[in-house]
Here is the input.
Amino acid sequence: MLKTLRGSYVLQNLFYKKIMIKYKKTTENIVTITMDMDGRSANVINHEIGRAFVPCIEHLRKEKAANALKGVIITSAKKTFLAGGDLDYLYHANDPQEIFAFSQQLKALFRTIEELNVPVVAAINGAAVGGGYELTAACHYRICVDHIDAKIGLPEVTLGLLPGGGGCIRLAWLLGIEKAFQILTEGKNYSPKEAKTLGLIDDIQPSYEAVLDRAADWIRKNPNARQPWDMPDAKIPGGTANSPKIAQFIASAIAILTHKTRNNYPAPLAIAAVLTEGTIVDFETAQRIESRYFTTLVCGQTSKNMQRAFWFDMNSIKDGLSRPKGFGKFRPRKIGVIGAGMMGSGIAFMASWAGLEVVLKDVSKTIADKGKDYSASLVTNRVKEGKMTQFDANTLINRIKTTENYADFEGCDLVIEAVFENIQLKNRVTKETEQYLDSDSIFASNTSTLPITGLAKASVRPENYIGLHFFSPVHSMRLVEIIKGAKTSGETLARAFDFVKLLHKIPIVVNDKRGFYTTRVVSTYLLEGILLLVEGQHAMRIESAGMNAGMPVGPLVLCDEVSLSLILDIEDQAKIASEEAIEPTVHQLATQFIDRMVHEFNRTGKAHGAGFYDYPTEGKKHLWAELQTHIPLNKNVIPDRDLQERLLFVQILETVKCVEENVVMHTADANIGSVFGWGFAPFKGGTLQYINDYGLDNFISRCGELEKMYGTRFTAPHLLLEMRAKNETF
Here is the structure.
């Protein structure tokens, strides 16, 4: 362990309103700087931490000049090492000169650290992401504790940004352009072992104490440590952007990026530009280049949209925005799942993954066992990839008990039915199950459309009945839509919310109405796409318009993936379940064509190899060759902008109606639900943030134009007119 000289001491002039840096020196003249921001659960990169480092660096320089400094260890008193930038600042920042100055000041701070002329080691005790990793990159050596919470990465691209503290340039020098490009544009966070394999860190130690010991030992052995870019005749691994091989890589990478992002995401292309321009100039010039691109992204609307959705909206949901207050935290001991198909098996897997005992039931134990085998296949793959031990895999599988008897649900705190979208079937399993449940047990329906209030009529305890709409495949889809029925109690809702979070899913809460929120809105995308087809627009243009607008797939291929026959079944069941008259809309023309596809052409979707696309056993899918023969092309070609905005506006306007009808109660639920539920244009930040991005006045005006050309489904809802009058935004 490190021995102190005259005890440890703290420089009092390092205290600021929200920042504290502790300074400890040993008998060997090794200084440990410990970051500990006051009033925050995690250290973040902002102006305050920069100001606090200034006197600390000056003191270190004096110590070095007096030959009283052998090396520096930088660490943290928080559970995290150092999180990324202060997004509260970046989200509201709009002055380019101020942002550029902030980026340059941060770079200057990091530069002074690596130019102390003594070895500097980052002792990483927890997560070091974004600006936190950039600080470690300014150190000469990086050692991380081997802990599950110690994540390493540069995820700025996921918020529409790039590293603004020199991370792009330093990573290129440390790893080479190709590897740096991959890490920066993917924006992943890595475990310590993964980070070491990639070269992001240099060493891993089993404990924090061992990290500090190793840091001091490295300082002793490397008194003349320097950064690669400060060494005479140093070269970037693999070459600069001027080398033929790297130039070819960059050209190919940009082409792939452009195809993948459809030019909707400026950050990945800005990263490519920084790596290209910044590796053919000196280090200081490269830093300024990075700052300029960083400033452009911070000021851009795309980064504002993505920060709003993936940081502010996401955090408000995680913090319990929609969870009723006053109820203790709920953790079930044992849950039941009815239906061992893909959905039910996926729910069982995630519950077991969370450490819960699971009873998986189907009409026969043989079928239930097949559902358990699905979980076994998932963990087998994880074991093969080295992400899980065989012991942990066996433990997870053994927590799932299969059965064909409802009596085995005794003792379950929660039971979820995941049977077919059939009201009679759902009512029957509800009654069969509840006779074995305790009075405070929850019964949940995994339904995508059927009103929970109606389904709850089959329950003897409707206050304990709730909707939990999972998305397929459950193990990879992060969203769960929680539907509150008319009689669902606040406690049941709070407990369901806690359960969803326990599964590491994102819970959004909506009120009960046909289609709820996610299914109701995404169906407008599907039907508008088919309506365009019925109007005689070319199928490939429709599909391209959807993807160019930011959707993950076109509306026709999404119909195939959902299943055309299932869409019809859902429509039929919804009509049966609805207690309100369903008014006819122009989208019925689309439904009628789906009916022709299923019953006249026998094309039911991807699962059966034939829908709007053909799915050959060998080769790629392709549009059904006879499709346009059944719908002749219209000579009046709709402009690309209209195609794209028709596909997006129908979703946005339906979302606004959900807000008007109190189906959606919070903007965050609408935005996050749209992005994670069906992939609505992430660069726009969600359906309601799209309106903020467009500008409310402009959006209402555009609605008027689309209404005149294409119909009343594009009429601006009254809520938007009220908001404009009050100068409000979502």
Summary: The CA atoms of residues 327 and 491 lie 6 Å apart. Residues 1-18 have pLDDT under 50 and may be disordered.
